[in-house]
């Protein structure tokens, strides 16, 4: 029970990052908030890995996050707290892209949680959806980065709401498409 509670907290806390940045944006504590969130992300990945996903995928993501944070901390520590969403989006993209290089594809892995034997058509769909998620993650990182030069209000709105709504739409569309296609085929 305690393990599940800790796992749940480590999975949901990152969604509150933008709120914490907003609350601490004018204080010295902002860098500590970012460091805490990076540490929580690494703790979740190391101690509660998704055993159904391959070790290589989450190792690629951990390495990407650590290199990015170190690089940004050295070159531009003032921007680091605002680049957390960019780093996360690019680490997600790296996970999707890695599985395109070394199948099974990320979405195929998720599909096999529910159905062990997939048809070739389903595997092709999983590959295409993995490509879409990889491109979406890169675009999301780009918009998140660009939002820094628009305004802090837009950065908060995009990273705290709009990006999650877009992810939800893509997720729901990815689930609904096969059923809709089946109805009309």
Which SSEs are present, and which pair or pack?
Layout: H1 2-12, H2 17-24, H3 30-47, H4 55-75, H5 80-101, H6 106-114, H7 120-147, H8 152-184
Helix pairs in contact: 2-3, 4-5, 5-7, 6-7, 7-8
Fraction of residues in helix: over 70%
**Mean pLDDT metric:** 87
Give the biggest sheet.
Answer: none
For the CA atoms, what is the radius of gyration?
18 Å
Descriptors:
185 residues; 81% helix; mainly alpha; globular
Provide an overview of this structure.
With 185 residues, this protein is mainly alpha-helical. It has one domain. The chain is 81% helix and 0% strand. It has eight helices and no strands. Helix 4 (55-75) runs antiparallel to helix 5 (80-101), helix 5 packs antiparallel against helix 7 (120-147) and helix 7 runs antiparallel to helix 8. The longest helix is centred in the C-terminal third of the chain and has 33 residues, at 152-184. The protein is globular, with a radius of gyration of 18 Å. The chain starts with a helix and ends with a helix. 24% of the residues are buried. The mean pLDDT is 87.
Characterize this entry briefly.
The protein has helices at 2-12, 17-24, 30-47, 55-75, 80-101, 106-114, 120-147, 152-184.
């Amino acid at each position: 029970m305690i393990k599940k509670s800790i796992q749940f907290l480590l999975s949901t806390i990152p969604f509150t990052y933008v709120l914490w940045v907003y609350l601490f944006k004018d204080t010295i504590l902002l860098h500590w908030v970012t460091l805490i969130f990076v540490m929580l992300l690494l703790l979740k990945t190391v101690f509660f890995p998704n055993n159904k996903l391959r070790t290589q995928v989450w190792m690629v993501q951990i390495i990407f996050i650590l290199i990015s944070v170190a690089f940004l901390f050295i070159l531009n520590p003032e921007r680091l707290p605002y680049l957390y969403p960019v780093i996360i989006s690019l680490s997600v993209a790296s996970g999707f892209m890695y599985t395109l290089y070394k199948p099974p594809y990320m979405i195929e892995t998720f599909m096999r949680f529910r159905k062990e034997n997939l048809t070739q058509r389903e595997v092709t769909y999983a590959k295409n959806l993995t490509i879409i998620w990889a491109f979406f993650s890169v675009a999301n990182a780009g918009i998140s980065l660009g939002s820094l030069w628009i305004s802090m209000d837009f950065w908060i709105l995009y990273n705290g709401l709009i990006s999650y709504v877009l992810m939800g739409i893509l997720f729901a569309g990815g689930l609904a498409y096969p059923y809709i296609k089946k109805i009309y085929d």
